[in-house]
Amino acid sequence: MEFVNGFVEEIPFPDGHFDIVLTRLAFHHFIRIERSFSEMGRVLKPGGKLVIIDMEATAEGLREIEDRIEIMGDPSHVKNLSKQEFVQLF
pTM of the predicted model, to two decimals? Predict the structure, then answer.
């Protein structure tokens, strides 16, 4: 195993490098969501697996409040995505 420091928007590995890409409780910190998702797909080998584990946004009426609470605890929080928003990425 090797640890490399970098940004998900610019993953420092060639195309098709990994069998699996896993992100756990990080997606809600990404500013450029589509770019991040695209980069994860780019570094996957054909037939590779992308695993995303993250929080799911609450109902729209509470979503803004929940995100503000998250930011108070962790200023790097951007926003929680809804299940539909995750599905649309695929």
Answer: 0.79
Backbone φ, ψ for residue 80 (5° rounding): -80, 140
Domain hosting residue 56, numbered range:
18-89
**Domain presence at residue 47:** yes
pLDDT tens track, the chain, 90 positions: 778 888 999 999 999 999 999 999 999 999 999 999 999 999 999 999 999 999 888 888 889 999 999 999 999 999 999 888 888 888
**Count of structural domains within the chain:** 1
Residue 49 falls inside a structural domain = yes
Cβ–Cβ contacts within 10 Å for residue 28, how many? Answer: 19
CA separation for the pair 88, 90 (Å, rounded): 5
Q: How far apart are CA 28 and CA 81, in angstroms?
A: 7
Between CA 30 and CA 7, with CA 32 as vertex, the angle to 5 degrees is: 60
In a domain, 1, yes or no: no
Domain-embedded: residue 4: no
